[in-house]
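Re-run with default settings, no changes from the original entry. Doing this only to confirm the output is reproducible before filing.
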Amino acid sequence: MFGWIKKQKNEGGVSSVTEKTDTREGNIATAVAPPKKEFRVAESVPEEKGLRVKVKERKGCSVSMSIEVPAEDVVSYIDKAFRRVQSKAKLPGFRPGKAPLEIVKQNFAGAAWEEAVDIMLRESIYEALTQKKLAGVGAPVVEKIDGQPGQAFRFEMKIECYPDFDVKDYKSLALKRKSAQVSQAEIDKRLEDVRESQSKLVLSSATVVEKNHFVVVDYDSYLGTQPVKNGQAKNQLIEMGAAQNVEGFTEGLLGAKDGETREIAVKFPVEHPQKDLAGKTLTFKTTVTAIKEKVSPTLDDDFAKDVGATDLVDLKERIRKEIETGLFRQQRDDLEKQVIEGLLAANGFEVPSSQVEERAKGLTEHLKKFLMERGAAMADWEANEAKMVDKNRPEAERQVRTSYILGKILEKENILVPDTDVDSKIKSIVDASPVGQRAEVESWSQSRRENIRSQMREEKLFDFLIQNAKVTDVTPS
């Protein structure tokens, strides 16, 4: 069903067991994406069993309320609890669960009362939220429990709720759309990149190293007279015209002859990541083993065929379409970003702090994984983790608020994706895959059917928002 947290020690024999579960009945969920625990506002229903609910305070998304279960309803809950206890009771002379109810009442009064309290809390919390048209987020905190058999059962509850807001100004957003027109200069540059990728290194006829060369070297490095640990290399390729992490090495190779050995002094910068070498001067005993130069192919029809086109004209057209596709994707991403910024600016409201905290920790964990994969030290991360959570909290709030805004628009505009559209999307995914893998792709796509639907629904949402915006076309500077 849903859960609760008992915060205060019981009164009148109430159990002090603590429990946490989702505060949801059935499968109640919103269209909001990032928050993991959220619920649609329940439909208003008449008060059941005379439940008395009073909202004591509502501050932002935090709600405090007092709840009273009348004494006559407590009797019903106790009766229900005894029957549950009876089904599990073990008493001498009876099979498990078969002892008469009266005997069970004589032997398990305490257990039945604790069971009744548990049932009352669970059912009355849901009924209270339903009665007040509140949608709970996370587990409520229950405190000041007061009750005993034969009397009214009272408690207080604190819970974070779905924010109460009406989304504004989403049909008249001012957007600037950058041109997706492809220039000849962009085509020429991409064509040159393709040409460059097909270039080859060949032995140079030159006898000394020059700036345009690629040099193959062997070297040993020394700090003073001592060899540097892991400071040796064989057949190391050095591009003479490229920027280097440590200045001075390539300069020391200029003018060297093939087969020549030189000692090159290189001073490492003070900010160099290898702390034992930072700020120190190393000597590289370096031997040139080969001098090479780059040879690029001629841009002609033969070259175009080598890279999969029919001729040079066809290659240029393929490049143009590829660039255009990328520009349209950038254009769309930029428009969606502007939509989100506009919606956030027009819709300021408080969101549940628990969801912000959860999202901030998620962002921080993602950053941790990224840094760990790139060799960051765990000790350094642990020393700064709390600061990173704090740093990520504003972005987490933006993401949670964005999800609520978009969810509200989806609901308000009734933007849906029918099964036929999902079927068509899956078919296009399958048709685009290699023939031998289509059965596997079909199975995988069907298993992600609802994810695909969600992605399509989000795309329809942004289509709607952009179509209803005031869009001005601009030319990038």
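The domain at 200-295 is CATH 3.10.50.40 (Chitinase A; domain 3). Residues 1-49 have pLDDT under 50 and may be disordered.
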